[in-house]
Amino acid sequence: MNTGPALVSILRQGSYLIASIHTALDDSQLMRLQKDLVDQIGRHRSRGVIIDVAALDVLDSFGSRTLRDIAEMARLRGALTVIVGIQPDVAFAMVSLGMGTGSVHAALDLEEGLEYLDRQVRARQPGSSVVVPR
Amino acid sequence: MTEDHTVTDDESSGFSTLDRQDEHQLLPELVAHLREHRTKLRQEWATRIHDAHLLDAMTPQEMSTETRSVYDNYVEVLETGSVEALQDYARNLSERIIPRGVETHEVVGIVLLLRDVLARSLFEKYQTDFRLLNRVLDAYEPAANRIANTVAVSFVDERERVIRQQQDAIRELSTPVLPVRERLLILPIIGVLDSERARQLTEQLLTGIRTHRAKVVVIDITGAPDVDETVANHLVQTVDASRLMGASVIITGLSPEIAQTLVTIGVDLSKMNTIGDLQGGLEEAERLLGYKVTRQDGPVGE
């Protein structure tokens, strides 16, 4: 499975994980992404996950369901998920086919996603004296 | 009485195979008669138009000019049998009167009134000779019908052309996506929203969201005359798609009628953020974006 260039890169940025999907993934690759991400949330004690799908020009029902599942699993492990970079065509196709990201937040791009997480994560620990590193 | 009718029927069926020569002889006579009594017949026609409350949108002078032209054109068609000049005139007339809200039934109505007035005058002239009257009517009626037909078709054609033109204009204006503040877009929807337009609109909006990096979009549907289930579902889709691009949507300008329709037909709009009018929508959008608009002291308008 690890042959060829990486299809997804998972980067650690402070207390957030950023998963960039570079190309269309098949079902098993999606499951691998899901497993890796949920693993790493615990390992890095991440508070937020950003999944960047800007490179995708198609997102099928299994893909969007997996993204929803990842978000739910991440929540159970204590991290908030935001999906960023959905292209206009993809967004339109998704709603036409009755798919969506459910209750998962979507943001325009990486920058927006980071800003959203900053706001949400800070709001969730109002009494904490620990400054969340950016 | 009954016998008379039977005879008439027999006669007219006999005349339906009437040779065209008869028509050629009778029509000039007929035209001469109509020319001779032009003023009186035109007057009578104008009175009947007035009584029927047709063409109320026109002034008496205009009426008099137009009735004169229509009358002359009418008689000319009877004389020459060619409807081309009348067609041009009817188109020209339609072009002038359509913008003033003249309806199809009015135009057809006045032509039929003229047909009637002239027919009556022919009855009067030939009432002593029943056979001749029949022949005259056989010559007159096809021509008169053709005229009524031509005028009606010209009018409707012209109207359709105007409607098409207006539709094109609306489509071209279509849906501007307007940035009003940084990260705030307004999308005013004017005119009927069909599936094709809704698709176009969503595409433009999504592209606009990316270009302007919008976070809030206000969709104002004050200018949409009617919202049915299809349109409502399109709106829901637009809202969902915008959300996938990270922008939240506020819908404004739902009229009482539209609100009632939507609830009655049971479209699920629970996910939609709606606010009464555009002003309220902008205020809410500004709040979401963290803007605070305050008015400077001093009287308004100075």
Please state the CA-atom Rg of chain A, rounded to the nearest Å. Answer: 15 Å
Oligomer: heterodimer
Q: What coarse outline of chain B follows from CA principal-axis ratios?
A: elongated
Q: How many domains in all of chain A?
A: 1
CATH domain fold name of the largest domain in chain B? Globin-like
CATH architecture of chain A: 2-Layer Sandwich
| Mean pLDDT reading of chain B | 82
Helix and strand pattern of chain B = HHHHHHHEEHEHEHEH
The largest chain-to-chain contact, stated as pair and per-chain residue counts, equals:
A-B, 19 and 19 residues
Overall number of strands of chain A:
5
What does this structure look like?
The complex is a heterodimer of chains A (134) and B (302). Chain A has 134 residues and is α/β, with parallel strands linked by helices. Chain A has a single domain (8-124), classed as Transcription Regulator spoIIAA, CATH 3.30.750. Chain A is built from 4 helices and 5 strands, in the order E-E-H-E-H-E-H-E-H. Chain A has helices at 27-44, 61-76, 88-96, 110-124; strands at 8-13, 16-21, 48-52, 80-84, 105-107. In chain A, strands 1-2-3-4-5 form a 5-stranded mixed β-sheet, sandwiched between helices. The radius of gyration of chain A is 15 Å and the shape is globular. The termini of chain A are far apart. The relative contact order of chain A is 0.16. The model of chain A has no long low-confidence stretch (mean pLDDT 86). Chain B is of the alpha/beta class. Chain B folds into 2 domains: 9-170, Globins (Globin-like); 178-289, STAS domain (Transcription Regulator spoIIAA), CATH 3.30.750. Helices cover 67% and strands 9% of the residues of chain B. Chain B contains 11 helices and 5 strands; from the N terminus they run H-H-H-H-H-H-H-E-E-H-E-H-E-H-E-H. Chain B has helices spanning 2-15, 20-36, 38-51, 60-80, 84-97, 104-126, 130-173, 195-212, 229-244, 256-265, 278-289, and strands spanning 178-181, 184-190, 216-223, 248-252, 273-275. In chain B, strands 1-2-3-4-5 form a 5-stranded mixed β-sheet, with helices on both faces. In chain B, strand 2, helix 8 (195-212) and strand 3 (216-223) form a beta-alpha-beta unit. Chain B is elongated. In chain B, 29% of the residues are buried. The model of chain B is unreliable at 1-18 (pLDDT under 50). The chains are: A alpha/beta (134), B alpha/beta (302). The A-B interface holds A 83-84, 86, 88, 90-92, 94-96, 100-101, 105-109, 112-113 and B 199, 202-203, 206-207, 209-210, 213, 215, 237-238, 240-247.
